[in-house]
Design brief:
This protein is an alpha/beta fold. The chain is built from ten helices and five strands; from the N terminus they run E-H-E-H-E-H-E-H-E-H-H-H-H-H-H. Strands 2-1-3-4-5 form a five-stranded parallel β-sheet, with helices on both faces. The longest helix has 15 residues. It is globular and about 50 Å long. InterPro entries: CheY-like_superfamily, NreC/VraR/RcsB-like_REC, Sig_transdc_resp-reg_C-effctor, Sig_transdc_resp-reg_receiver, Tscrpt_reg_LuxR_C, WalR-like. One of its GO terms (biological process) is phosphorelay signal transduction system. This is DNA-binding response regulator. Keywords: DNA-binding, Phosphoprotein, Transcription, Transcription regulation.
Length: 220
């Protein structure tokens, strides 16, 4: 059973998502919150698999709520998915940097929404190639990063290659094809890179790759 926490300051939005989720046999909404502070408390109480968190809320917004969840060892199993009306804006980017597994625009189709919840619950980052490319576009007008995150020097050549391909928006199957390895080996390279770089998921791995200068935008 996938346990979901809804965090949104609009009761109507929460009710709509809850009605949709309650129809599914493998998904259970365990709690609802109207702001990020309440959401954080309920996350600690219920330990959900997924926290669907609105990006803009009173008291504590979605970015800060994500940051606090990601920083709490007791909530390591909670995957934050950001909800937004605006697409990939600055707030969403900051939430991804803070540790969100991905984001959803609130006008998403119901079947896509349910699929996304299941994807995130499996521990996979909710970043389709099209979304990853939008993350990349965020960097096109910027100079390469100069950061040096812990673990960067520990990456093997193959792990660096896998990270670069993740940052270009490729799936594990596509990475396997490019590197002429099995999908399982590709996944292993990506997972080891995430561990060494302390990235919670592929979303954060993409951000680290660009901010560290490990990968640079190509402008196309």
């Amino acid at each position: 059973m996938i346990r979901v926490l809804l965090v949104d300051d609009q009761p109507l939005i929460r009710s709509g998502f809850r009605a949709l989720l309650d129809l599914e046999d493998d998904i259970e909404v365990v709690a609802e919150a109207g702001d990020g502070l309440e959401g954080l408390a309920l996350a600690r109480e219920h330990l959900p698999d997924i926290a669907l968190v609105d990006i803009r809320m009173p008291v504590v917004d979605g970015v800060e709520a994500t940051r606090r969840i990601a920083a709490d060892p007791a909530l390591a199993g909670v995957h934050v998915v950001i909800l937004t009306n605006y697409g990939l804006d600055e707030y969403v980017f900051d939430a991804l940097r803070a540790g969100a597994a991905g984001f959803l625009v609130k006008d998403i189709q119901p079947e896509d929404f349910l699929h996304a919840v299941r994807v995130a619950a499996r521990g996979d980052a909710l970043l389709a190639p099209s979304i990853t490319r939008r993350l990349i576009d965020r960097y096109v007008a910027q100079p390469p990063g100069t950061g040096d995150p812990a673990g960067l020097e520990e990456l093997t050549a193959r792990e660096r290659e896998a990270v670069a391909l993740v940052a270009r928006g490729l799936s594990n199957d596509q990475i396997a094809g490019r590197m002429v390895i099995s999908p399982l080996t590709a996944k292993t390279h990506v997972n080891r890179a995430m561990t060494k770089l302390r990235a919670r998921d592929r979303a954060q791995l993409v951000v680290i790759a660009y901010e560290s200068g490990l990968v640079t935008p190509r402008g196309s």
